[in-house]
Every structure is written in C-alpha cells, then in structure tokens.
Sequence to fold (286 residues):
Amino acid sequence: MSNSYSIEDLLHLMARLRDPEKGCPWDTKQTFDSILPYTLEEAYEVADAIEQKDYDHLKDELGDLLFQVIFYAQMGKEEGLFDFSDIVSSSVSKLLRRHPHVFPDGTLESTLADGVVISETEIKRNWERIKAKERATKAEKEFDADDAFISVLDSIPASLPSLARAEKLQKRAAHYAFDWPSIEPVFDKIQEELEELKEALAHPNSDAPAQQQHIIEEMGDVLFCCVNLARVINVNSDTALRSTNQKFINRFRYIEKSVQEQGKVLGDVTLNELDKLWDEAKKAAI
Fold:
C-alpha cells in the first residue's frame, strides 16, 4: 500500500528541493519568471485530461498543477513576499467576500436564514458588483489619484492566451450593455470583416511591411468577431478550437495510414487523392 501524504509533506518536500546546499540544482536556480511556462503547460495538461475524460490521469495532472502553487509559495517565502498560508488565507477571504449568498456575514460559520432564497440573477449581479469593487480597490493601490483614466478592462491580464483574453474583454464590455441585441448582427459583422480582409489581400501596395501589418489587423478583426460569435452562442472558443484541432489530427492520421497502406508516402500523393481520403474520414465520423 502506498504512503498517504499531506499538504504539509508537499511543502516540506519543496523546501528540501530549494535548499541552497542540499537541494536539487535545477529547482534551486528557478525564479518566478522561469517557472511560468511550466505553469501554463501544466494548466493545459489538466484541460487535456478533462477533455479526454482521463480522470486517472487528471489526478496526476492536478497534482502537477498544485506543485506549481507550492513552488511559487516557497519562492515567495524565501523572498519575504508571502507563503502558502498567505495564499490560502487570501483565497478563503476572497471566496467568502464573493459568496454573500452562502456566507452572509463574510465568515465561514455564517449561514442564510431558513427559507431565504437568492436567485441566480441576483447572485450574478452581486458577483459583478463585488468584483467591480475589488477592481476599484486594486486600482487605487496601483495608481495615484492624478494618474491616467483606469478602464474596467484594465484588470484583464494581457498575458492570457489571445482567445481567452478576447472573450473576457467582450464579456466585460457586455456586462456594461456594450453588446449585440441579437445574433444576426454578429454574422453580419463577421461577413463585413471577411470582406475587409479580402480587400486588404486584393490590393497590395508598395509598402510591403505596412501592407502585411494591415492584413494582420484585418485577420485579427475576423478572429475577434468569431470569438464574439462563440460567446453569444455560449460556446467557449478555446474549447471549440481545441476540439477541432483534435478532429483535424484524427482525420489527418486516417489519411496518413491510408496512404501508408497503399504503399505510398505523403509527398507522392496528389491533393485530389488527399481530399478523397479526407472525405472518407469525415463520412466515417472520424
């Protein structure tokens, strides 16, 4: 039977790994910046395990993601910034503050009076009100009163993946009534942006770098509008694209295997033949 460890054991293990004299050479030289790419990678591996419904693997991936938090906590402790208990305390405080419909007095012990029911609409309204107050408080700490105007969009991290950030920007604006009245104008907007992209591609100018930049901007507008459509129909654009990526992989693997079974290699097969194999894969619901 394997040993059962606690969060305290994990914290102790991390401290040992970071020990300047007897720790792991790789772990001891890491910084907040150097660990960041691994954190993003672990988060995506968690997402992949969930999408694959591989729950045994999910346990391990969640452990890897938790270890990232432990890593940051240890580095924060070493630099006198914060430790793991500070992270936990901050998280509990925030969740208590954001769930007055569960903890009305803002304490773990408080509960709603019997018979009191709060609607989901009111919960969402309270949630946004509380987050808006938190953003305002954060802005006051980070900026002087005489500094430039602070937008409600400023708190959306620039480091988010582009699809996720586009969706968050749109959701934030929509909360303040800057949104489409129905779905039809969204399709019209996508068509409009596609026409502008076609126009940019059809009329090159002598300034190649400027032309390429214009094309990039128009392509960005198309993608932004597609993310907006996904948001309006309640589809997560990143999840949808990840699903399509996997579908493409599955179908292309079918093409590769079919070509191999014919005794050929991909470079020797015409586009028409590849298209036929793609259609076969599509009909087979691959």
User: Anything to note?
Assistant: The chain has a mean pLDDT of 89. Residues 252 and 278 are 7 Å apart (CA to CA). Residues 208-232 form the longest helix (25 residues).
